[in-house]
Amino acid sequence: MSDQWPVILTAALGVAGTVVVAYIGIHGNRRQTADEAAVEHEQWLRGQRQDAYVALLDAWDAAVARLEQTVDLWTARQERLDSQGGEPYELEKAVEEDVLDAWRGLSKPLDRVAILGPASVDKAVIAMDNAFDAASAYLNHQANPDEPFERDWHSWAGLTTRGHEARREFTEASKLVLRTPPRPGGRWDVVQRRPAR
After folding, report:
1. d(CA 101, CA 98)
2. 44-47-53 Cα angle (round to 5)
3. CA distance 157 to 152
4. Buried b (16+ CB within 10 A) or exposed e, 61-76
5. I want to staple 56 with a disulfide (CB 3.0 to 4.6 A). Which of 32, 42, 109, 158 is the partner?
6. Rounded to two decimals, what is the model's pTM?
7. Structure confidence by residue, pLDDT tens digits, 94-136
8. DSSP 47-112
């Protein structure tokens, strides 16, 4: 019987090794499949984000152009209103319609980007939304005949600068998100780097 121990031990080690290798293979394949699925999802999400980010930039540019057009047409509208003996609230109504028209084109792209995230982009979207709201409120204030009119429009320059800064912040945040490749092993988070000064 002592001559059979090496054969029995070798066979037992072979069976144990086969079980261990099979377990590792099955577990490794599951992990690989999960990693591939996670990377594929992140690639899909990145494509969705890219489309949403570009759509937001286009909508932002159109909305800002609409507000700037409102300012450019202000004097002509006021002169036409004065020459025709119109009501002072007609200018307010026209400006409200311009602002609402600009908002209609901007609200869905803002919402879509906010849904797709991530948090680093959400912060920039909030800044864009706030900048648009501030510019809209200023125009509505200027058009209201019951409010004091700012004849030199000195606040408008600051508001447009705020809007340009919000757009730039969004562009930087979205570039960082889109340029970060998906990684296997689950969800990837974008680490927000400080821009170079």
Report:
1. 5
2. 140
3. 10
4. eebbebbeebbeebee
5. 109
6. 0.74
7. 899 999 999 999 999 999 999 998 988 999 999 999 999 999 9
8. HHHHHHHHHHHHHHHHHHHHHHHHHHHHHHHHHHHHHHT--THHHHHHHHHHHHHHHHHHHHHHHH
